[in-house]
Design goal:
The chain has no helices and 62 strands. With 728 residues, it is mainly beta. It folds into 5 domains: 2-295, 7 Propeller (Methylamine Dehydrogenase, Chain H), CATH 2.130.10; 308-398, Sandwich (Immunoglobulin-like); 407-499, Immunoglobulin-like (Sandwich), CATH 2.60.40.10; 509-602, Sandwich (Immunoglobulin-like); 613-700, Immunoglobulin-like, CATH 2.60.40.10. The chain is elongated and about 190 Å long. It starts with a strand and ends with a strand.
Length: 728
């Protein structure tokens, strides 16, 4: 059963609505209109609360868990004791499902602050770093005796439960928590709570003690409330709420902690279970009857929720500002009395403030430090109810230092630009608010009295078109940086340029290797190309573009480009190739249709051997003049010259006896015999075939033969006609 009561008259509350709960309501956590319940063995439950309460979903467990912690708008953590620490998704209205189970034997949890949460395990306190719903790391651990209930306020954690020890632990450094005091009571301590410099302890039949912990290392008792069997205590605003074992909840005023006075009570007629804060509501749970939501009207004892705060600089899209007086809009649905603000650090008490003032829709901040400042805000209502723990925060970046000035890059100073003008500058870094934008100005005069373009640019470049700008005249530009706090840097150095939109025409002529248009044949893979251009160009010629093989289809359809004249072109193939050449000026203007051609020729293969040679006379002769003809071998560049050498093979290309450009030669030979001749050739590219020369022979004999020796008749003998004459 869940019952909501109106306590306009605190001494006579009445029920406004109720809801039946299946579990034991041990702990409540309200987020806007959502209420999460730690329902003991029945599991975690989710409700919506508006003018009525509506059950949405349940996460079933078999563990009597004590509380829960909200990680973000869609995730809660449930301490499941020996079953671990569960991360549960609560995004969907009709279901709660497990995201991940972490291996920490958690008994109770603190809220998550800056991704840090603490957990008791029965015999220790763990510090946990919550990276995401499915990622958690252990920061620290400290052994304790009886570590069950805990509360975290003001960098202090109070741990108690199931033993007679209360531990005060400093967790300002969550990686290394330190026990700064131990309070021994000698009897059970059910739970504790901390606010400002007060610690209250619920000690069963020994009642409630109120401690001064302004010096946490030496707590001292201020007063006590006796005569009650206290089970759960809670500080909220100026009041102390106590659940007692006989079915009552008492409300005590702690305006004077040394003299607590009871101001109200509520009878729920059951064993006490949970006691938690809600939104202008106290949640009270019991073992058998469910839980109640107690509200007030007219008689107000609940501290207000913190107002919404919205820095005015956010209207300009940034939390950074350079204003000396910074306006902050505030709004609240409650009737507020005073606003309290503290700079840089979370408040440790109701009046731990930088300043306070009567509530107004706009608050002005002064004297902020340079950098990102976190400001905490809370409020009291018109009845004076106040609780600094119900604070919110907002962030303001304060930066009054201008960023560095940018440096221009393009167009080059005193340079030129064409139809499309690309302005580029060096970006700068601002170590506080960061550079937000750049301010660009273009002017027709150096004093910037006639500004043509004035604009803000997010990037470090700007593209303009020359169609609406004056051409062939000097223009001036500069740029400054603006940071997120709207500080302006000094202007960059001023650069000038001129616009030229007319591309160069067709080159007058092209020379290749000192030959007009057509190169001589060569074996080399480099060609020296030079263009000649007699026309005037406003910005001056700057670059030459080249397309090999086929005519260009666009200005970017190139094989190479060069910024010298003459220039060296590399051609690694063999054969005859056409090159299309056009020009670009310093403004980047070019027209591929204004091209001129040249032809390059390359042959790296030596000629073939000469295979057909004819010598006349071809037989033995006494003549000294011979006619030699041969057939021209095939060659890419064509044969330029033929070489002959007598007697021995050539040792070098020009180790010759004769040479000719014709395909025949008449030579005079003085020697006799079978004389070897070697024939080779050289092509127009200078390749020579001397290593594979052709061999042929000339046969010449000018000596008469010797007379034959006589055999018959013998010398001096008488000749016999019948025998005849015989010689060798």
């Amino acid at each position: 059963m869940m019952e909501a009561w109106d306590i306009t008259d605190p001494s006579s509350p009445f029920q406004s609505f109720c809801f039946k709960s299946t579990g034991i309501p041990r702990f409540f956590l309200q987020k806007d209109s959502l209420l999460f319940l730690a329902g003991g063995v029945s599991g975690g439950e989710k409700f919506t609360i508006d003018t009525s309460i509506k059950f949405q979903a349940r996460y079933n467990t078999l563990v009597d868990f004590k509380n829960l912690s909200l990680f973000n708008d869609t995730t809660i953590f449930l301490p499941m004791r020996f079953q671990g620490l569960n991360s549960v998704n609560v995004k969907h209205n009709d279901s709660l499902y497990l995201i991940k189970r972490f291996n920490f034997n958690s008994y109770a949890l603190t809220p998550v602050r800056n991704n840090i949460m603490f957990s008791t395990t029965g015999d220790s306190l763990l510090g946990l770093y919550c990276l995401s719903p499915d990622s958690m790391e252990l920061l620290s651990g400290i052994s304790l005796k009886g570590a069950y209930e805990l509360v975290w306020q003001n960098n202090l954690i109070s741990v108690s439960g199931n033993d007679s020890f209360i531990y005060i632990i400093d967790v300002q450094e969550p990686y290394s928590p330190q026990i700064i005091s131990e309070i021994y009571t000698g009897h059970m301590v059910y739970n504790t709570d901390i606010k400002d410099t007060l610690l209250v302890t619920s000690e069963g039949t020994y009642g409630v003690k109120i401690w001064n912990i302004s010096n946490p290392s030496s707590p001292s008792v201020i007063d006590s409330i006796s005569g009650i069997d206290a089970r759960r205590v809670m500080l909220w605003g100026k009041y102390l709420y106590i659940n007692v074992n006989n079915g009552w909840m008492y409300v005590f005023s702690l305006i004077d902690p040394s003299n607590p006075s009871k101001v109200d009570s509520f009878f729920f007629d059951d064993y006490p279970a949970g006691l938690s804060q809600g939104k202008n509501m106290i949640f009270v749970g019991s073992a058998n009857r469910g839980f109640w939501g107690l509200t007030t009207e007219g008689y107000d004892i609940f501290p207000p929720k913190p107002p919404d705060a919205y820095p005015l600089c956010m209207l300009q899209g940034s939390f950074w500002t350079s204003e000396e007086s910074i306006g902050v809009l505030t709004s609240s649905k409650e009737r507020l009395g005073k606003l309290y603000l503290k700079y840089y650090e979370e408040p440790f008490g109701d009046y731990d403030t930088t300043f306070s003032k009567i509530y107004a829709d706009t608050v002005y901040l002064h004297n902020l430090t340079q950098g990102i400042d976190t400001l905490y805000i809370w409020a009291s209502d018109t009845a004076g109810n106040l609780d600094y723990r119900f604070h919110s925060f907002f962030v303001i970046g304060y930066d009054t230092s201008p960023p560095p000035s940018p440096s221009p890059l393009l167009p080059q100073n005193s340079g030129y630009a064409g139809d499309t003008i690309n302005f580029i500058w060096h970006g700068v870094y601002d170590n506080l608010s960061g550079v937000k934008t750049y301010k660009f100005q273009l002017s027709s005069d150096s004093l910037f009295t006639n500004i043509l373009i004035d604009t803000n640019i997010l990037d470090t470049s700007l593209q303009l078109f020359a169609i609406n700008l004056p051409v062939e005249t000097q223009l001036f530009w500069h740029v400054s940086s603006i940071d997120s706090a709207l500080n302006n840097s000094p202007w960059s150095s001023m650069w000038s340029f001129s616009i030229d939109t007319i591309p160069p025409g067709v080159p007058d002529s092209i020379h290749v290797n000192n030959r007009n248009k057509v190169s001589p044949w060569t074996r080399n893979d480099t060609f020296t190309i030079q263009y000649f251009y007699s026309q005037q160009d406003f910005s001056g010629l700057n670059r030459v573009y080249l397309k090999q093989g086929t005519p260009p289809m666009s200005n970017s359809d190139t094989s190479a480009s060069f910024n010298q004249n003459p220039f060296i072109y590399l051609f690694e193939q063999e054969g005859v190739e056409t090159l299309y050449i056009w020009l670009s000026d310093s403004a980047g203007n070019s027209n591929y249709l204004n091209n001129s051609i040249c032809i390059i020729r390359r042959d790296t293969s030596p000629p073939d051997s000469i295979t057909t040679v004819q010598v006349l006379p071809g037989e033995w002769t006494i003549d000294s003049i011979f006619s030699i003809t041969w057939q021209n071998p095939s060659d890419l560049s064509g044969i330029k010259r033929y070489y002959l050498k007598i007697f021995s093979p050539p040792l070098s290309p020009y180790d010759t006896s004769f040479s000719t450009e014709a395909e025949s030669i008449n030579i005079t030979v003085d020697t006799t015999g079978r004389i070897p001749f070697y024939l080779w050739c050289e092509d127009s590219a200078g390749s020579n075939s001397f290593t594979r020369s052709s061999l042929f022979y000339i046969k010449r004999d000018t000596s008469p033969p010797f007379p034959p020796p006589l055999i018959l008749p013998d010398s001096g003998a008488q000749y016999n006609a019948d025998e005849g004459l015989l010689w060798a």
